[in-house]
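Please describe what follows:
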Amino acid sequence: MQRREALALTGLAAALRLGAAPSARDQLIGLWQLVGQFNIGKNGEQITVAERQRGRISWDRSGHVWVLLYNDGRKAAANPLMPTLEEYREMNSGLMTYYGTYEIDETKQTVTHHLQAAANPSLISTDLVRRYEFTGNRVALIFPGEAQRHVVFERIGDL
């Protein structure tokens, strides 16, 4: 065996022993279901928010993301083709939906969603930057700012 091959095999064996951790991108790729949201108060206390919110997020290998969040228990309009203003407000209560592309910065532990379309027109062509934290089969997306909003998803499938 030549020296170069021996070094390559030694490096491969070392990598296998160390169990090199998958990249954040590899960990994110898949289908995730919302399991909860909370803020961290000034005293470090965890404050549950948006208890009725449900939804999913998906990151794929080609660099695309989609999100659908909504409030559970919304009432349907009496006439789905012609909802009243109040029924329309109720149907869209807590609705957050968009799609676009994403980038990951592992040094900052952030994922940036580049929005191409959104239910809220003011979000189109904007970037949403969130810090991420993995715990087991869950990922928390942490919003910047004083409230420290954590939106927690649990993996439900691979893509």
